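Appendix B, Record 12. Input sequence as logged:
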Amino acid sequence: MQGYESTSEPDRFPREEFSFLPHVVQLLDKVSSGKNEVEIKNLTKKLKEKFQRCHQILQELPGADLSREEQEELLRTEKELLEQKR
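Logged structural output:
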């Protein structure tokens, strides 16, 4: 996957990319105060960009277009192939 570094071996994407709560809380604090419309717009834009990055990461995951059953079948087939090669 381009541009995304793995945080641990089994992961294929950085988990911190999917942490939205701090951004949402920060945005809600600004909205509830009703101050600084420009900052609210900037925070909203950043949150939207974060959602778009996450969507892109998920779209690039191998096998994301397969159902769970198809993924399990593929995994079983690959494991059998690995055993044969051993």
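Residues 37-60 form the longest helix (24 residues).
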